[in-house]
């Protein structure tokens, strides 16, 4: 149990620092920016305390906001992604989620990809909707959401492949 807590704490700190020190400075073509920190939300264990998970997701977004000076948009987006995660898990994994038998290191790649795409799109839509905050710029919001999501999903999948342990 202690090893599990230290592993998630380490993941939390590394993802916040990686986002703040490296990824926030990537601004490809003016509107493509990866948000790899949502990997913490995506890979958090399913059976753990839901309130703790929501609180940690909020803190994750808040720390990214503090380092990015973004006024709370990442905290709102991370909390939204964490709150909608059970619905996304049920959509992506079906009966495996109902019986709490999902282990992210043993599930099939297609279901994992659907899960990551859905979670990332929801997160990014909230981030860019709050960033732009003008319905007249809906095409800009959708463009930023789509292209940043593609970049984030590629980085997320590569990170999972590189750091996954095959047993």
From TrEMBL:
<feature type="transmembrane region" description="Helical">
    <location>
        <begin position="73"/>
        <end position="97"/>
    </location>
</feature>
<feature type="transmembrane region" description="Helical">
    <location>
        <begin position="109"/>
        <end position="133"/>
    </location>
</feature>
<feature type="transmembrane region" description="Helical">
    <location>
        <begin position="51"/>
        <end position="67"/>
    </location>
</feature>
<protein>
    <submittedName>
        <fullName>Rod shape-determining protein MreD</fullName>
    </submittedName>
</protein>
<feature type="transmembrane region" description="Helical">
    <location>
        <begin position="12"/>
        <end position="44"/>
    </location>
</feature>
<keyword id="KW-1133">Transmembrane helix</keyword>
<keyword id="KW-0472">Membrane</keyword>
<feature type="transmembrane region" description="Helical">
    <location>
        <begin position="145"/>
        <end position="163"/>
    </location>
</feature>
<keyword id="KW-0812">Transmembrane</keyword>
